[in-house]
Amino acid sequence: MRKKIVAGNWKMNMDYNEGLSLFSEVINMVKDEVTGSQQAVVCSPFIHLHSLAQMAKGYHKVVIGAQNAHQAESGAYTGETSAKMIHSVGAEYVILGHSERRQYFGETNELLARKTDTALKHGLKPIFCIGETLTERESDQHFDIIKTQLTEGVFHLSEAHFEHIVLAYEPVWAIGTGKTATSQQAQEIHAFIRIEIAAKYGQEIAANTTILYGGSCTPKNAPELFAQPDIDGGLIGGASLKSRDFVDIVKVFN
Ligand code: 13P
């Protein structure tokens, strides 16, 4: 059976000490309160990764991820961080293709395909984000956009590599807006994504792929979203910055 995952994306928030206190609260609550087989992933800024990975040692339910990685192995790319470096500090996951990276840093599907290859090569599991903008939804292009993002971003992978991918459907119009997709809207896209995976890699791999929902997810709306048959957890922005809210979302699977 596929994994249930709740991943927090801190984005560019939390200085070093704030991040450590938030994470120690999360670990303590998860340890005492989370009983199911779900996994919590905390995707912090680079500066926290090593310390968080040390703190998470021994707690199998909480692992660490980064929010970006460069496509090159190493070299003269001032200011960038490689997948190998991220893996070396103990991170397991990396978010790739977030709409904020696509929008503000011009990341294209083609570039993201290269980042995915490099991340996998160095043992990181990509949480690969896809999702349409409001204009695209209103002009009824959302299925085409999702299909293109999948085809150009991850469908070049071998079966063995694709099995390490977690997908996250994040409608851009729902991110940070307080406007969540309804559980029906999200389920419709998640089911479509799973059909596309089945067409490319077969039923078994499709059934085993974890597909997260992201966009204004809160402890209040998570139970209904996560009850949908094709929604396997969430990618949480704002609510992951409050330990109580984040852990309450993780606990939806208890
Ligand atoms: P919010 O939960 O703040 O809407 O952010 C979602 C997101 O972008 C997670 O990657």
Mean pLDDT: 97
User: Which spans have pLDDT < 50 for at least 5 consecutive residues?
Assistant: none
**Fraction of residues in β-strands:** 5-15%
Kindly state the number of beta strands. 8
| Overall tally of domains | 1
According to CATH, the fold-level topology is: TIM Barrel
Based on Cα principal axes, name the global outline. Answer: globular
- The fourth-level CATH homologous superfamily is Aldolase class I
Please give a structural write-up.
By secondary structure, the protein is of the alpha/beta class. Helix content is 44%, strand content 15%. An eight-stranded parallel barrel has the order 1-2-3-4-5-6-7-8, surrounded by six helices. Helix 1 (16-33) runs parallel beside helix 12 (243-250), helix 5 packs across helix 7 and helix 7 (142-153) packs across helix 9. 1,3-dihydroxyacetonephosphate (13P) binds next to strand 8. 1,3-dihydroxyacetonephosphate is lined by residues 9, 98, 170, 175-176, 214-217, 235-239.
